[in-house]
Every structure is written in structure tokens, then in C-alpha cells.
Amino acid sequence: MRAAIYRGPGDIAVEDVSKPEIESPTDAVVRVTHTAVCGSDLWFYRGESDREEGSPVGHEPMGIVEEVGEDVRSVDPGDRVFAPFKISCGRCEFCRKGLHTSCVNGDSWGGDNGGAQGEFVRTTEADGTLVRVPDRYADDEATLEAVLPLTDVMGTGHHAAVSAGVGEGDTCVVVGDGAVGLCGVLAARRLGAERIVAMGHHEDRLELAESFGATETVAARGEEAVERARELTYGGPRHVLECVGASSSMDAAIDLCRPGGTVGYVGVPHGVDEAGLDVFSMFQENVTLRGGVAPVRAYAEELLADVLQGTLDPSPVFTKTVDLDGVPEGYRAMDEREAIKVLVKVDH
Amino acid sequence: MRAAIYRGPGDIAVEDVSKPEIESPTDAVVRVTHTAVCGSDLWFYRGESDREEGSPVGHEPMGIVEEVGEDVRSVDPGDRVFAPFKISCGRCEFCRKGLHTSCVNGDSWGGDNGGAQGEFVRTTEADGTLVRVPDRYADDEATLEAVLPLTDVMGTGHHAAVSAGVGEGDTCVVVGDGAVGLCGVLAARRLGAERIVAMGHHEDRLELAESFGATETVAARGEEAVERARELTYGGPRHVLECVGASSSMDAAIDLCRPGGTVGYVGVPHGVDEAGLDVFSMFQENVTLRGGVAPVRAYAEELLADVLQGTLDPSPVFTKTVDLDGVPEGYRAMDEREAIKVLVKVDH
User: Hey, which residues 216-255 in chain A have their CB within 8 Å of chain B?
Assistant: First the structure.
């Protein structure tokens, strides 16, 4: 089969590799039809985090079940499914609590199970990991493109909103206008926020934020952005969604949060260890830092229900579509910020 | 009047200074009878944080109201009162929410209002700041010594437990065996914790922790301490009280916390900016960091009720008593860890 392989910073190649096969009774093999390039893929693409050369890439698979192990009960060959960016068992203490990312039987995509930017992937723990899309939507392209972000960015934006404690009537600020930030706006609106201030650096993305439900936008940078957001929220919001993970955006989120408020953070921390988090500001104003890697499996059913009934549609975050051979071009477009998020339609 | 004055690292002098007077209608002057030396005083004493030379020290005053401004309604001259380590108005948005440390009219002790380690202090915002001790206990020495920690360490330990989300039947770990950590043990027990593991470095303090309600103690250091606490709690507690504020103890608290759990932190962060917080570990396991400088005024009434009815007694944290002239000796004893916390009985 063909799959996108990491060959070093700036170098993604689509190559022939061996197709993953069922290895244990709880496995399933999925023929990937749709997947995406993630902002977090850019860290290794840019050489800013380590990744083994020669490893398959991609962690947002959607497709058709090809084959299942003998113990798999929840899906059958031919079913339309998607899977979160983490494999989880659904049975352990943490999965039962909705913290699937800490699953004791968990695993990641991209090893010998294949990367999601390829023709096939194998999931261990198929019953715990795969989410079935009802048959009547199984081939509806518009629905599938709205469901695909549930593999990662929509669940992650939702986790930011949940972690920040956003509820009915609240005012919140969303830091970051990438795909996760935009999904954070959708999530905050879905949870009933009355005022949603979106902060970012790109006019076109902030326009999309407005169409997603942002009531105000702030396009400034640094201290000016913080001041403007604080002004708009009469002294800072009680709920901040930090959707970037950079040291500067974490500090901005903490800085603009109202005393006693909560920063929900979901961006993979990047450079935060080196630059240091502004713990003293948090301490002085009792700002809570809550969140982490999003257990998107925990949110899949409720978000899927809303997508299927048409009240939630994150698909506009896909501003570019490529086929499997176009994956390297997809990375380039995201790296150069030409695309917010790239949809990959995998041809077989 | 006489008051303890900071003269530089390692140098506290008891000197004659001018007595604070009523300056505005909301002021009160308190004749200090009891106060204490705080672990946080050691930061400037050791030269590890800046403080203006010549400034009066002490922030845990208890005494008798000497004089009040014409707008003061809640206390009269002759009343027995104590005050938290921060002055707060009781009326603003933050005070009404119980976040008195973010009071928009707030102030600190130690400027021209006098330090609490002196004969008199003036509080602005007397109605919002001073807590009245009922007359029947006003001269009961044992009760007063049990009330005094409500000015700081008992409220701070309580804030750690509340921030960590400790409740009925919970298992928690308390990091730190100083006065705040010991009060954290008392607070966790009071909130219904079933298992309380106290971590520290001093056998005698851990014995006191046991008498305060710790069910187990860990006297090890570093990774060994974390491993031992994790073992005792079958993989880490969901609730960790971080009662030190050093970079190493913050990292230990985050490290041993169960995935999805909460670290309640109340120690003034010290060296954390330089060493960097382990944000990546927090992120990976969705560990929440909640807390900050404790709004002890918010907790004063409920804790006072328990002290007065005899179900809460933090006074054993005072292991040494001095008079006003003995304040320098009190700093020395705490600096050299001879005393857990020093009680100052102010003679007039």
C-alpha cells in the first residue's frame, strides 16, 4: 500500500510500504478514505520536535472497516468509522472516566500500525477506539467532512472549552486562530457562551471565527492584544481557551484571564519548558490551569450527534483538499499558512 | 512604639518607630498582642527576594482594637480581632467571590501601616479585613493561639485542600511538612479525606502530621519520595496539596498526581520561573494546577467556628514562643529549622 512517510524535516514522501494486518483478536484494519494534516504534525515537519525517520505519519483516520479480529464486537467489515488521534481500550480506569488519552492500554498511530495518512491502518483495541458512523450517513460526503474533525481538532477545541469551564451565558476569550482555536469558538458557542472573543493574527481566519460564533475578534499581537481583549471583557474573562501551546500564547492567556478564572489549554506545549510559564502571575491572581491532551474519544458521541443533526459543522476549517500523493504539498501549504487545515481524500 | 524592621538579609532589628494613626474614616488601629513569623518571611530574610531596607515586617496580626475611623461599623475599640495577611475591602467583585487577595482596594502590611511584628498596626478597610473573636474567648490564651494561624497558615493549608478538590472519602498527598503543609493535613482531614499521605524531610514534623490526621508519611526525597507516595496511593492520588512552592516540590506534586487529578498549590512560587514548571507532564496527563495566594479572609469565619467549638487546633505548629525583642531570634530559629513556626507574644 502507499503511505506518507517522514523522511526528515521538511521532507514527507509517499512510498510503498507493507499493509498492516490483524495481529491480535482485538485488532481491526481500516481502509482510510479521509484523513487530515494536523497543526501538531508541523512540529516534526519543522524539525522542532523529534520523530523517527522512516515512520508513517498522520493520526486522524476515517474510513471503512476492512477486517476485524475475532474478539471485536462493536464494528463489522464494511462499517464507516473514524478514530481519535489516540488508541484507547474503553475499559480501564481512565477510559471509564473519560480520560482516554491516559488509557493504560493506549497507543499512538504511526508505528507498525501505519499512519493515518496512508491507505490502511490497524488499530489495536478496535472496540474502544473506533466510532461508527450510522449507515445512512456512511457515504454522504458533506457529513463525512464535518465528522472528520472529531478525530482531533473539534474534540480538542471542545476540551479547551470544557476545561476552561465555559457554560451558559459566559464570556470567554479564545487564544489562537488555527483549526483548534476555530473549533474552540464552535465549542464555546455550543456550550452556551454569550460572548466569544477570538484572538489571532490572520484576518481571514478571524472572519471564519466570526462565522463560527465569535462575537468579537482581536487581531493584534503581544501586550496590545492582551490589553484589547481585557478591555472588551471589562477586566478579563473568567474563561480562556488557550489553543496554541506556544510560550507566548500561554502567557497571554494567563495574563488576560480574570483573577480566579480558568485557562483551558490544549495546544501541545512548545517552548514552554524553556521560556518558563508565568507561574507567579497565576499564583497572584489564583488563575487555574486546566486541560491537556484532549481525550477526544470521550466527546465523540455527543459531538457526532450534533454533526449528524446539522447543528455543528467544523468542516470549514478544511481550506485545501489533496489526494494521497498530495500529502507533501498539504504539509507545505500548512507550514506556509496557506491552508488552515488540509483534508486528505485517500485514493485507492 | 517598638517594631521589627528589616535591615537587610539576615538582619531583623527591633526599633522605635512612629505609631500608625487613623488616617481615613475606614481605618482601624490595632494593638497587636500576638503575631508570628512566617515561612514566607524567610525569602527576604535569606536575601532570596527583594524587600526595602527599613521596612517593618510581619503580616499575621492579632490584638485589641485601639481606635477606629468614623465609618467603621463592624468593630469597636476594645474588641479582640485578628486580620489576614492581606487587607481587603469585602465589597468589591473579588471579595464577594471569596477572592479577597485580588481585592481592588487591597493592600499589604509592612508599609506605613506598620508590620504585624510590632506594637500597633493600622488597617485601611477595617470592616472588610478585621475578624472579631467573640468576647467570651477574647482573653483565653489557648484559644487565641489556636486562632492565630487563621491569619495565614491555616487558611493557606485550607486553600490548598479546597483547590485540590479534597472531599469526603478522598485520598490525598500533602507535599511539604512546614506549617502550611501541616495545616493542609488538618484541612484535608476536616474536609473528610480518608487517606492523607504527608511528604516531608523531618521526622518530628511528620510525627506532628500524624497527630494532625495523616494516615501515612513519606520521609524520602526526590524520585524516591514520589515513587513511595505513588505506591501508597496505588498509582498516585487524585488530589495533591503542594505546600512549599519550590520548583522541585511543584514538579514532585505534578509528577505523583494521578492522571486527570488536581494539584492545589499555595506556596509562594520560588525558583519556578527559572527552573520551569513541568508543563509537558501536566499536559500529557491532564493534571490541573489550581490555587495561588490564599484568600484566607474568605475562610476565616468557618475555620474560626471550628476552632471555637474545639474541633480544629492548629496551634501545635508553634514550637517556639518569643516576645517582641525576641523576633530576630525567631527568624534565626525558623531559618535554621529549629522551629516550625514562631509565636510572638507582643509585650507593651
Answer: 250
Residues 294-323 of A with CB under 8 A from B: 295
The reply to whether B285 and B307 lie within a common domain is no
Cell of A179: 483549526
The pLDDT confidence band at residue B93, using thresholds 50, 70 and 90, is very high
Domain that holds residue A258: 154-291
What pLDDT, on the 0 to 100 scale, is given for residue A269?
Answer: 84
Whether residue B292 and residue A276 make contact (CB cut-off 8 A), yes or no, is no
CATH code where residue B267 lies: 3.40.50.720
| ipTM for this prediction | 0.94
Q: Of B273, B291, B309, which residue constitutes the final position of a domain?
A: B291
Strand duo B195-199 + B171-175: pairing: parallel
Helix (H) or strand (E) holding A161: helix A153-163
Chain A residue with minimum CA distance to B285: A102
Q: Which of B279, B293, B296, B299 to mutate to test the interface with A (most CBs of A within 10 A)?
A: B279
Q: Do A283 and B273 touch (CB under 8 A)?
A: no
The pLDDT assigned to A277 comes to 83
Amino acid at the residue A217: T
Cβ contacts of B104 on chain A, cutoff 8 Å: none
Are A89 and A169 within one domain? no
Considering only the beta carbons, identify the residue of A99, A278, A280 that sits closest to B286: A99
Residue B299: exposed, middle, or buried by beta-carbon count in 10 A (0-12, 13-18, 19+)?
buried
> What share of chain B has pLDDT > 90, as a percent?
93
CB A181 within 8 A of CB A203: no
Interface contact A99, partner B, CB < 8 A: yes
Q: Per-residue pLDDT averaged across B231-244, rounded?
A: 97
**B118 in the same domain as B17:** yes
- For residues A153-179, give the mean pLDDT: 98
**Per the structure, how many domains does chain A have?**
2
- Measure CB to CB from residue B269 to each of A280, A287, A291 and give the nearest one: A280
Q: Are both A86 and A194 inside the same structural domain?
A: no
Which three-class secondary structure state does DSSP give residue A33? Answer: strand
Instruction: Tell me the average pLDDT of chain A.
Output: 96
